[in-house]
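stage 2 :: seqdesign
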């Protein structure tokens, strides 16, 4: 990452432990990380290494025992719930292994929904959703329900929805975990294209070794730190 790059997310000295019975289990142990604008970074690590915990802490969905997570000049680790929710709404998008599309709404309605929640009128929200779905190759699937779409198409809708709020950062937790190899490669390539076109950073947790060479950086979570 260039020293001249604009950092959109910075984590400093993150510690996180969990208590199971009488045992304290360290998950993050002084972790440091920076993500630049439009950078595409993959996070890998063995099962149970804390990758999902890391994503939750970076998103402000969980708080570290100590340390800082800076987004838009705000430290999510010390911010209140309303402030964290505002930062997520304004600066972040999310893609999950299970797409979490609402089954009773069409692809168009699923993408438009976060815009409607933000108070954007129906016509404007649907216009933007239509544009985003066209960008991800689903111009002919606007009215389809999630149950009428393939797994890869559902994840394309999820990517479009994540982009709806013009985020600076998209956090993706195993977005290709339920897809076959060919479809997974297409979704990863789509993320790279969207990152370049929209200027947003992608931080992707993945076990897909075939996808790793296409990322700007690959970092491994082990012993509570990124290596």
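stage 2 :: out
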């Amino acid at each position: 990452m260039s020293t001249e790059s604009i950092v959109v997310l910075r984590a400093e000295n993150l510690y996180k432990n969990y208590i199971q019975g009488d045992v304290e289990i360290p998950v993050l142990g002084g972790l440091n990380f920076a993500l630049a604008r439009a950078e595409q970074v993959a996070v890998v690590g063995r099962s149970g290494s804390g990758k999902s915990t890391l994503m939750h802490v970076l998103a402000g969905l969980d708080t570290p025992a100590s340390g800082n997570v800076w987004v838009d000049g705000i430290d999510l680790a010390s911010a209140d719930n309303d402030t964290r929710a505002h930062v997520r709404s304004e600066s972040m998008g999310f893609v999950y292994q299970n797409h979490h599309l609402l089954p009773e709404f069409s692809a168009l309605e699923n993408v438009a929904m976060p815009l409607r929640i933000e108070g954007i009128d129906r016509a404007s929200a649907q216009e933007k959703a239509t544009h985003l779905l066209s960008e991800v190759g689903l111009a002919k699937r606007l009215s389809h329900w999630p149950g009428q779409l393939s797994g890869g198409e559902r994840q394309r809708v999820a990517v479009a929805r994540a982009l709806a709020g013009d985020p600076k950062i998209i956090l993706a937790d195993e977005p290709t975990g339920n897809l076959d190899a060919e479809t997974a490669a297409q979704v990863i390539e789509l993320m790279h294209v969207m990152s370049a076109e929209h200027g947003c950073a992608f931080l992707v947790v993945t076990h897909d070794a075939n996808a790793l060479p296409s990322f700007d950086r690959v970092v491994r979570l082990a012993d509570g730190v990124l290596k």
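stage 3 :: structure notes
- The mean pLDDT is 93.
- Residues 28 and 54 are 8 Å apart (CA to CA).
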